[in-house]
Write a structure and sequence with these properties.
Length: 90
């Protein structure tokens, strides 16, 4: 699918300068920027959807971990005292 972009001269110049510095084409720089943007926004949307699902689950069940419980568990990661995830409770 061919797509064209209209960018102002200032941005076009900046892209070209970066392309020259990186020894890449301006086309490569723009594709890379778009790919990174889309990846970042998809990850953000996924995080938001996961958070909303967690919130809905909490509202339905009341089951949760407190901040200190989660922090204590996470602080054990990668140590000889590593434990399994604590059970959620009401």
């Amino acid at each position: 699918m061919a797509t064209s972009l209209k960018i102002d001269d200032g941005l076009k110049s900046r892209v070209q300068q970066l392309a020259n510095t990186r020894r890449r084409s301006a086309h490569w720089i723009m594709l890379e920027a778009i790919q990174q943007y889309v990846d970042r926004e998809e990850a953000r949307e996924s995080f938001k959807n996961e958070a909303l699902a967690s919130w809905e689950s909490y509202q339905e069940t009341g089951r949760h971990l407190t901040g200190p419980e989660a922090r204590d568990w996470l602080n054990n990661w990668g140590t000889g005292d590593e434990t399994t995830v604590p059970e959620c409770h009401k």
